[in-house]
Design a protein that fits this description.
By secondary structure, the chain is mainly α. It has 10 helices and 4 strands. The strands form 2 sheets. The chain has a two-stranded antiparallel sheet. A two-stranded parallel sheet has the order 3-4. Helix 1 packs across helix 3 and helix 6 packs across helix 9. It is globular, with a radius of gyration of 24 Å.
Length: 277
């Protein structure tokens, strides 16, 4: 039976959250292996993007002509392996933030108001729509590729929104308990301003536009997550060969589905328009 949590107290017009514990969290991070299947799939995609086909995977002269600095397929394959390994390491590091936020949210003692969840859901749906637009894909095409229904998509948005709202509330509780602050001198660093930029002018622009407090809260969130991740107890769980093979098969299946959908879209676009007679 799920525990029904109370609504948060509203203090100063803002909900006030607390956690069961403010101790460092414990997380387990999955690390993907760089399998031969992954390398071959990425190699094929690289060649395809350059206009090549299966025959070019054995054509060293074509590789030299189309990939600057490379002399043969073996060098391209090794480069692909290195890039995949680096991407897997980056993905593992990115998991730390996700895992820490989720672990902290599990300690939340209050329920997040529905209004906050709905606001998060709208933001997620808008971001998803923009991503589809950038990829030149409609929602209907996405659903066809993934085999999802509209109701499945909405349920996914709702689930992610609840998670996001709870994590935001938990991080806010941690910040208040830790009395963490961000100084004006730290703002440019956390907001991604180049080190050689005019920090004072940057701060003045934020003040004039009325966005200084919003920027400070954003920077405070980043600083808090950096601290939470740095203090976390992390165990790395490396992927087994069988797990890597299963993941590669699923990646191949999804890629094949995407390519098939793209071919159908190209066929539709190449048909001459109907004429009324």
């Amino acid at each position: 039976m799920e525990l029904v949590k109370p609504e948060p107290l509203i203090i100063g017009g803002r909900p006030h959250y607390t956690l069961t514990s403010y101790d460092p969290v414990t997380i387990v991070v999955d690390v993907a292996a760089t399998s031969d299947q992954d390398v071959e799939l990425a190699l094929q995609m690289s060649v395809t993007q350059m206009g090549g086909g299966p025959a070019e995977l054995n054509n060293d002269a074509w590789i030299r002509e189309n990939f600057e600095g490379l002399h043969n397929v073996a060098e391209l394959r090794e480069l692909v392996r290195q890039e995949l390994t680096a991407m897997n390491a980056q993905a593992a590091e990115a998991q730390k933030t996700q895992q820490c936020a989720a672990a902290l949210a599990s300690r939340l003692m209050q329920a997040v108001p529905r209004t906050a969840v709905m606001q998060a859901q709208r933001a997620i749906a808008e971001s998803f729509a923009m991503d589809l637009q950038e990829q030149g894909m409609t929602e209907a095409e996405f659903l066809a590729q993934t085999g999802m229904r509209t109701s499945d998509l909405q349920a996914m948005f709702a689930s992610r929104a609840k998670e996001a709202a709870e994590q935001e509330a938990a991080i806010t509780a941690w910040i208040e308990h830790s009395k963490l602050q961000v100084s004006d001198d730290e703002l440019p660093q956390y907001l991604g301003m180049p080190a050689d930029g005019d920090e004072q002018e940057f701060l003045n622009q934020l003040r004039v536009s009325g966005q200084l407090e919003q920027a400070r809260q954003y920077a405070l969130h980043i600083k808090a997550m950096n601290t939470i991740v740095a203090e976390a107890s992390c165990t790395y769980r490396h992927e087994t060969p069988a797990q890597a093979e299963a993941r590669s098969r699923e990646a191949r299946r999804m890629l094949d589905a995407q390519m098939q959908a793209q071919r159908k879209k190209n066929e539709r676009n190449s048909r001459p328009p109907l004429k009324l007679v």
